[in-house]
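Risk register update: the risk of archive-format incompatibility is retired. Evidence:
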Amino acid sequence: MTSLKPGVAFTLHAILLVIVAFIYSNFYFNGLHWDVTFYFEKSLEFLSSEEDANKRLEYPLFALIPILLPHVFRSVANDFHAYKVIFMMQNVIWLCLSLYLAYRELERLKYRNITGRLIIMAAITLPFQVVFLRMDMFPAMLTLLSFLAFLHRRYFWSGVFLMLGIATKLYPVVLVPLFGMILLVWWDWKAIGRFVAGLLTPVIGIVLVWTGVLGKEPAGLLAFLAAHQERGIQVESLAATVVYLAHFLKGFPLKSAYVYGADHLVLFSTKAILEVLLTMYILLKFIFIVLSGAVFRDVSRKPDHRTTSLLAGYVTAAFLLFMLANKVFSPQYLIWLIPFLCFLRMPLLIGFLVIFLLSSLLFPFLYDQIREFAMPGLGLIILRNLLCVAMLITLCIPPVAWRKYYRRRS
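Archived output:
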């Protein structure tokens, strides 16, 4: 592992990603290409000259970039397979760019065993088919750019890239209070002003394009939230895991239904559970932000090894908290973590390797067993989610506490 140079390891990984993407583009596994089909149909709608009342994107406006980009090649036209191949190749580009930026930062900070980290990242991404077939890698790359700009004290650009990520897919919004709290405990009011200005700049541009160029009502920018609000408890979520454990203890029957493009549990108490989930997330998010403020208060602002590893850990924890407290935990959500994993401590990186390998096995190969509540699929989804909880707790423990623990042991 150490005899291979990091640059060679990265190059081999990039080549394998291209090869694997072509292989995946010619195989159809259990609804795996459903999202690409959706992107293709939506792209045709938006490129059509006809006025259609159904032209409503189920994502924020900036998501049109990865969805429409394959049509730059005229050969795509109405050819779904050509669209799919180009869409997958552009995801390979976003992924390679993200890994390259991370790799260069690892070299600058003189991380240990960079080659080993890159090999583990290859083991994470190559079997993980959804990374090629969902658009999430594009906002994940934008979020990484925001993270790197924040580290290097380019706070305006950090805000710009973060808002562009939010304008593609909403999830990076969970980093706004985290970055804001860190700047607040550093008492850097100029940095806060630059960060806020960076956040607002893309918003102004998007609103002007939406209302001025496209002639739409401003409220239409948030129309994509409606479908998510109507969804129930997805069968892969942590809330569903709690229901499964209760099922094993009490023996009550389980039932699922396919609605809004995913399988959800059918429960008489769904509304009450969702209200509890929301309350728990707000409470846990508040605790997490306060904890992050306490941890980063005495951390150096210089983009050194310790600050980078710690910030990557808290960014990963912020995403994990959002995933686990959410009513939906699709495998594509794990894509959000990929750009930040190689900055983590090696034991944590190995832990996430196990989580990703389990997810690659569960979807698409064992997904039918999950929605039919059969083993081993049901047992493995419970294990995967409990591992995610363990990783979240581990990431949130301040490194000082770990050092004191190891000193006591020695």
